Amino acid sequence: RYSPPTVPPPHMSKTSATASGHALWAKMPKANAELFALTYGSLVTELVRDYDDADEINRQLDRIGHSIGVRCVDEFLSKAEISGVSIPTCQRMTDTAEVVARIGFRMFLGVTAEAANFSPDGSGFSLFLYENPLAIFVELPPSGGDG
User: Fold this and answer.
1) Full set of structural domains in the chain with CATH
2) Tens of pLDDT, residues 16-48
3) How many helices (H) and strands (E) does the chain have?
4) Could you say which protein family the record assigns here (predicted)?
5) Cβ(134)–Cβ(37) under 8 Å?
């Protein structure tokens, strides 16, 4: 279910965060996008072969994604510091979401995500990718009645 994105915190400039993301992207060594997408696709294919249950496949992808995310955050913080790129101080989860969406995703995938749907207690949010570099070789089944 899609909900329209919320507005970022007033003290964070979308423009400066996006500019920081572009600066880090320019300084990062680039990997071939097709190779990256095929590698990820191979991982998903192996999980589908190993597990019969879609819920278990999603649990494994969630576990793997969490591990990758933790490593990406470490890399993000160290590269930003080394590169001298100014990262806004995050006082709240909404600030963190905006930095990850606008700078982190740009740094690693070359795309900007949008943070939205913040939980009422501020402990969770959704990230929307309007361009997904991992989907270049993906065929989705036709939408049908089985969801």
Assistant:
1) 14-129 (3.30.1380.20)
2) 555 665 666 666 666 667 787 888 889 989 999
3) 5, 2
4) Belongs to the TRAPP small subunits family. BET3 subfamily.
5) yes
